[in-house]
Amino acid sequence: MALNYKAEKILLNVLEIFGPSILECLWTSFGSGISRLRSKKVIERQEEIQDVQCDLKAYDDVWSFVEQSLTLSSTQDMAVIKCHHRIVNVLTSIVEKDISLRKNCPKKLKYCIFLSNMDKNYLGVVQKFNRYLKSILSVFEEEKSKANALLYTEAVGLSGRLLNILINLSYHDHLVDHDALLQQLLQYTNHLPADAMAFVLESIKCPAFIYELLFQKNTKKI
User: Fold this and answer.
1) Which run of H or of E encompasses 73?
2) Buried b (16+ CB within 10 A) or exposed e, 105-114
3) What is the pLDDT, as a whole number, of residue 7?
4) Cβ–Cβ contacts within 10 Å for residue 141, how many?
5) For position 219, what pLDDT does the model report?
6) Percentage of the chain lying above the pLDDT 70 cut
């Protein structure tokens, strides 16, 4: 098993046993030089092992890393992107676990790891989403036909999980502005091709939000 998959498995086991707080540092290690993750890939044709490094300090913040990881093109190194996907999976699993432990206590939910990494207005509410939507939905900026099918499927799955975290939090108006998210997501997806928009809708797990989004979209046309 490649080292990046082993590292992922270890981190997910740590998350399950000790909880998300012990791994919160991964969300704040970008740009700080705290963490450097290494993995190895096997080049089948050359039958040799090469190092694949992911230096988190090279990214301004977690959202820069997510955007880079989910943006696919035919010229990218598959091993590097696979490594990035493993890290994004761990990061997403951390915030999913963190929110699940806080969801029954609004006061605690306010301080969840996910929201701690987002800008807020003077009332402490997240109101501007363009930066985050650009990162989370970056996979849909590239034509599916030009990307590796396996990596594209992985990226869409990770994108969907992050988007659903944001949507679920938007039903707590004191934390995330629901209407603002709806409007900004609609604006962002308006320029996407029909197949990409279909993938976005398929990724959303909240039927009520899908209804609101489509209603707003159809209203705009009228």
Assistant:
1) none
2) eeeebbebbb
3) 87
4) 15
5) 76
6) 82
What value, to the nearest 5°, has the Cα angle with vertex 83 and ends 164 and 97?
35
Residue labelled with tokens 């869409």: 156
CA–CA separation, 173 and 186 (whole Å) = 19
Task: For the chain, give the longest Cα–Cα distance.
Answer: 59
Rounded distance between C-alpha atoms, residue 106 and residue 103, angstroms: 7
What integer pLDDT is reported at residue 1 of this predicted model?
A: 44
Cβ contact 172:109 at 8 Å: yes
What is the residue whose two structure tokens read 């029909």?
Answer: 194
In single-letter form, the type of residue at position 152 comes to Y
| CA 65 distance to own-chain centroid | 9
Question: Rounded to whole angstroms, how far apart are CA atoms 25 and 13?
Answer: 16
pLDDT of residue 42: 32
Question: CA Rg, the chain, in Å?
Answer: 18
Contacts with 50 (C-beta within 8 Å, 6 or more apart), sequence order: 40, 41, 43, 79
Structure tokens at 171: 């039903």
| Residue 36 β-bridge partners | 55
| Residue 185 three-state SS | helix
Residues 6+ apart with CB under 8 A from 76: none
Pull the structure tokens for residue 48: 């040799």
Q: Are 202 and 148 in contact (CB under 8 A)?
A: no
